[in-house]
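Encode chain A's predicted structure.
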Amino acid sequence: MRFFRTAALVLISISAAGLAQAQQPREWVPEAVDALRQSASSKTEFTLDHSMLVLASKLDPNNQDLRRAIAGVNGISVHSYRFPGVWAYDPDALTAVKQQYKDAGWTQLLNNHDKDGGPGVTELWIRLDNKEITDVAVLVAKSNDVNLIVVSGSISPLDLVHLGGHFGIPKIAGGESEPNPDHRR
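Encoded structure for chain A:
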C-alpha cells in the first residue's frame, strides 16, 4: 500500500518537474553516468525539488524526523539502472564516475568494495562549502544493478539516515542497508 502511495506521488511530481526544472537547477550528476544509462536494460530516474519533497513527506505526517531532514534539502535525484546479466555493466564507467566526483572537488567518505572480488562498490561522496555539507552522493553498484542517489542541500549524516526508506534512498539500520520489501525484482 505504501509503495502505491509513493508511486502516485512520484507520478504527480514528475508532471510538475517541468515547471520545477525551469525554476531550480538540477543536482550535479557526473557525465559518466550516461555510459551506465546507455547499457542498462531497465532505468528509473527522477528528481524531486524541495516543494515536491515537502508534499511527499505529508504521506507520512507522524514522521517529524523526516520533516526536519527535508527542511534543509533542496532536492533529491535518483538514478537506478538494472542490467541483463551479472556484472554486465562497464566497470570503467564506475571508475569514470568516481574520477569525475574527485575532479569536481567532492570528498569521498566511504569506499566499500564487494567482498566477492567483483566490481561492486558502495561509495559515499560529499561536497563541502565553508565546512558545511552541501551535497551528498551515494553510489551502490551490485552484481546487476547500479544506483546513484544525490541529495542537494544542507544535510547532516543523521538527516541522511532519516531520509532512508524514502524517495529511493535505501533504509539504513546499524550501518547496513536494509532490504526494501516493497521493491520487486
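Residues 2-23 form the longest helix (22 residues).
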